[in-house]
Amino acid sequence: MLAAYFNKNVTEAGLDEAGRGCYAGPVYAAAVILPRDFYHPLLNDSKQLSEKQRDLLRPIIEKESIAFAVTAVDNNEIDRINILQASFAAMHRSIDKLTVLPELLLIDGNRFKRYNSTPHECIIKGDGKYAAIAAASVLAKTYRDEYMQQLHQEFPHYGWDKNKGYGTAIHRKAIATVGLCKYHRKSFSIQPKLF
Q1: How far apart are CA 49 and CA 175, in angstroms?
Q2: pLDDT band at residue 103 under the 50/70/90 scheme
Q3: What is the DSSP letter of 3?
């Protein structure tokens, strides 16, 4: 079962990102502050949930949260500053957009770039341990998936409606056939000659 909080005496925001390892599209990050008594039996690391379960949870998290924000850093900025820095930038922008100031940040993963003077805890596999991080993982994933569905309409041959920009066989084959498009991350080693 997910823990409701890390420290019950402070206002905590859970943070997670989606799309870090993709060949194409933006990286998304979400920040979520949940009430301490929030509970939903389905809530878990978004990777452990079906698309249907994530889509069910998203409006519940948005309605029940004290505050939430979701932001993206596009592929051009990723290429300019690198994917790790882009992930941090997306998280920072999400914190900026929160309507309630968190006193502690719970970060999924083992690294984070300090946000002002706000204390933070990096928690490996945190999206499977803390409700607020799990909620952030669901929002980041659903918002990004929705956006990749839109990009799929523009470039259907890459199969982004299914692979969401990850380097699946269908995606790699399409790159080898038609090359890269404006949404691909050029700093990633995905040139057709490599396949």
Answers
A1: 29
A2: very high
A3: B
Separate counts of helices (H) and strands (E) for the chain: 6, 5
User: 129 is written with which tokens?
Assistant: 């341990």
Asked whether residue 123 is assigned to any structural domain, the reply reads yes
The domain total for the chain is 1
CATH number of the domain within which 156 lies: 3.30.420.10
Laid out side by side, the sheet with 120-123 consists of: 67-73, 27-33, 12-18, 104-108, 120-123
- Summarised one tens digit per residue, pLDDT across range 30-82 is 999 999 999 999 999 999 999 999 999 999 999 999 999 999 999 999 999 99
Q: State the residue range of the domain holding 58.
A: 12-194
CB 77 within 8 A of CB 86: yes
